Structure formats: structure tokens, C-alpha cells
Amino acid sequence: MATGFNLHRFANPGRFLRLAGSALPWLTGGAAILFVVGLYLALLGSPPDYQQGDSVRIMYIHVPSAWMAMMGYALLGAAGASALIWRHPLADVASEAIAPVGAAFTFVALVTGSLWGKPTWGTYWVWDARLTSFLVLFFLYVGHIALTHAFDDRQRGRRSAAIIAIVGLVNLPIIKYSVDWWNTLHQSESIIRMDGPTIDPSMLWPLFTMIIAFTLYFFAVVMTRMKAMLLEARHRAAAFAR
Amino acid sequence: MSTLGFFDMGGDAAFVWPAYGVAVLMLIAFAVLSWRRLRAAERALERITESDPAMSDDA
Questions:
Q1: pTM, whole model, 2 decimals?
Q2: In contact, A176 and A184? CB cutoff 8 Å
Q3: Cβ separation of B22 and A112 shorter than 8 Å?
């Protein structure tokens, strides 16, 4: 019980605003520096692949976008559970802040994957398990956004969206293991493996740099959106009280 | 890599550059839109607290 109490104390909107105020410059600055370094390494400082040539450079934006899309959905599911089970005061705000960012980068992962597929597989799209489950992730995000705004009673919309967020969590392990469970055109896992990454360090480091840049960016944008939403709520309350 | 070679991306320019274009556009769009939304919310709140100091956190 003590944990729940502390969690709520930490989740106090005023406390969150102060935390966001001090964290945002670090997240934004860190993301900006890592994007500059990462883009240099991705476009100039890394070698072309011996089979794929320069099209392999799409990996440095495709993989971080896909990572961001899945991490975003895991957080959306956690926020949905927090809203429904613990009535966490910031959970609904977090959900509304995360969903459009997650949807946008799921879209980026799909488009960049498609553009990478043409020169490597000879096709922009194939209905294999990885691509299809990733498209389902995009629809889950879109469904979440639509449900949030579907009802005049905002609370009802948020509850419905929280349910879709939780149910949709089942899609994350399907995306992750789709390349092992089914015969897919998409390559199998090459970074997070029991026996270590199979990518050469000259490509792995630029990729890690970009993944960290995208992660810092994600938290910076989500925190900015949450902060804006909380201030908008304060403004509405102040205007109503006048 | 020569400048021309860089832009040509070994013949894969038609795939590499649109991919980077979509990603960079989305990254910039969300950063700018989020920051503008925050600034608008801060300004709106400032206006209301300036006109009525009792609404301020410090009051």
C-alpha cells in the first residue's frame, strides 16, 4: 500500500510540472547532440553493407522508429492500466500525449521499412507476420486516438481507449517474436539476442546512438505535451472559476 | 565518399533520401507542434493570472 501512496505522491501534477521543467532541457539537449552525431555516423561514418550497399543506411532510422513505436505502446498500455486500476492522476494525460507520437513513428517505421524493402527484397510490401503485426500496431494507435475523442463524455472515451491500450499489449510479443514463430521475409532478430548482436560494431554504434537519440526525443516530446495539457487544464479551471 | 557519391547513395538515393525525409519531417513536426502548444498554454495561463493575481500559484 505504501508503494501506491508514494506513486501517487510522485504523480502529483504540480510535482510532475516541476520535474518536467528540470528534465526537459537535458532531454532536448541530449537528443539534439545525439541526433547530430547519429546522423553523421549513419550517413557518412558507417560503411555500406557488403550485400545491401547504401540502402542499409535506412536501418538507422527504421529500427529506432520501430523501437519508439513499440516502447510507446508498452507505455500506453501501462498508462491505460494505471488509469483503470489505480486511477493514477496523470495516466490519462500521459496516454493522450503518447498516442499521436507513437502512431506517427509507427507510420515512419512502416514507410521506411517499405522503402528499405524495395531494394533489398524487391517489393515495398508483403503480408508477412512482422509487417502485418506492425500494421496492426498502427491501427491500435489510431483506434486509441479515435476512441479517446469519440464520446461527448471524455471520461468514457478515455476508459474505452485505456481498454484498447491494454488489450493491444498482446500484439507486442507477437511483433517481437513474429520473425521466429513464422517464416517471414523480414530478417530475424539481430540486436537483442541471447548470444549477442550479430551486427558489426561499425554499424551497431551508429544504430545505438540513433536509438538513444530517438528515446530521449520521445520522452522530451511526451513530457512537453503532458506539460502543455496540464497547463491547459489549469487555464480551463482558472477561466471557469472567474 | 565524394559529394556526388553521397547524394547518389550507391544508386539507392530514391529509397534512402525519402526514408530520411519522412523521419526528419516527423521529428521536426512533433517537436515544433509540441513546443508551440506548450508556449500557447503558458501564455494563456500567464494572461489569466496577470489579470487576476489570486489565480496565481504564489497567491
A1: 0.90
A2: no
A3: yes
